[in-house]
Amino acid sequence: MTRPLNFVMISPHFPTNFEPFAHRLRANGFNTLGIADTPYEELSDSLKTALTEYYRVDNMEDYDQVYRAVAYFAHKYGRIDRIESHNEYWLELDAHLRTDFNVFGYKNDDMLSIKTKRQMKEIFRQTGIKVARGEVFHSDDEARNLAKELGFPVIIKPNSGVGASDTYKIKSQAELEDFLGHQTPDVEYIMEEFIDGDIITFDGLTDHDGNIVFYSGLEYSEAVLDTLDHDNDMFYYIPREFSPELIELGKQCVKAFNVKERFFHFEFFRVKKTKDLMALEINCRPPGGLTIDMWNYADDFDIFDQYAKIVRDNQFTADVQHRYNVVYISRKANRNYAHSLEDIQAHFGDKIILIQSVPGVFAQIMGEVGILARTQTMDELRELVSYAQAKV
Question: Which of 227, 350, 358, 366 is least surrounded, with the fewest CB atoms within 10 Å of its CB?
Answer without folding.
Answer: 350
